[in-house]
Fold:
Amino acid sequence: MLAALTGHSAQSRAQRPSLILDTETEDIIRIYASPIFKAANLKGSDVKIFIVKDNSLNAFVAGGQKLFINTGLIINSDSPGQIIGVIAHETGHIAGGHLSRIHDALSKSTGPAILGLLLGGAAAVVSGRGDVGAAIIAGGQNAALRNFLAYNRTQEASADHAAISYLEKTEQSARGLLNFMEKLGDQELLSPAQQDPYVRSHPLTRNRMATLANHIETSKFSDQPETERFTALHRRMKAKLFAFLNPYGRTIRIYKTNDPSLESRYARAIAEYRRTNLEPALKLINGLIAEHPQDPYFHELKGQMLFENGRIIESIRAYGTAAQILPDAPLIRRDLARTQIEANDPKLLNAAIANLEIALSRDRESASNWRFLAIAHGRNGDQGRSYLALGEEALLRGKPPVARFQAGRAKNLYKRGSREWLQAEDILLAADDLERTQKRRKNNR
Structure:
């Protein structure tokens, strides 16, 4: 849960953005997005959501049905409606087929364009490869990359009209989308280097804003209030991200100690934990758990606090409660398994393996899941499955020689035609294919 953020200060624009993994934030964005996806006739489970650790106001779609939302957009949004409006607009790009040229460009382009996409491993993301964990498109750092993501005015207008229709179908106001555009409006007067990436890739025009304003004048849903549930989710999501991304002092200035609201106590619990003040952090999170015993994200945070302070057994209990409440969350299952492995108790290894298999059934593209599974099988004396897991991990990390070596070791241990033997064969074939792809990219530079 936001493990990539722990101990890091807010990111400057000069730094390269990265993905963060947090079940709660992804779940909230999906709650916002699901009605929009349905209105667009998209299968919600086919659209993958990624949260980008970057303080600029940006969101984009790439590599098919993959939606990326910056933490900067979330933290600086004034309401859930602004985020929902942006999601609706980006969904319009997906439904409108505006992404096909990106795939064409990747297959045909060489040289500077491909190099630009390689910033932060972005080529892997845009091309649809699974190894997206450590890298994401570096907004504003490369002109070629911005050109890949930029839409023309016709496509922008089309996405706006689609967004309006989705919001109407879901009986939501378009004011949030207009307010977001107004927030960015003044940036068109700035030099490109100073603009937020969203302005550069989604050019604003007076006609676009006028279209939204005219719709708001006539729509019967323009004054539809945002639901209390969405507003509450928005407040806690912002508080959580703010506390993980900002120094202690700044968090405490915003979320004051005399503020008893849920989001204030949540932010301060995170701030105290990040400052290694475990007891004040536990007092705050335990208070929230006492009030909301079925909230899996509070138990998950408590598990993280305890694990990182060496209180492994207590951490297992906290993560276990979170997994019972939210059994299909792969990140929670992974972190529960990690604590079970760290306990160095052979009796917990089978449970750790079971949790990792559940996590992999939901997310087979997580290199860390395979790594932990390899460790658990190895300690459990099952070297063959450990080698297979190490081979899968190596593929996801872009290391075909390692994948080939581990798969070869595993293949020698299993009967020809068995499930494990076939898995080893698949890894070997995938390693060969990956190596050829890497050589082509190298030769095209």
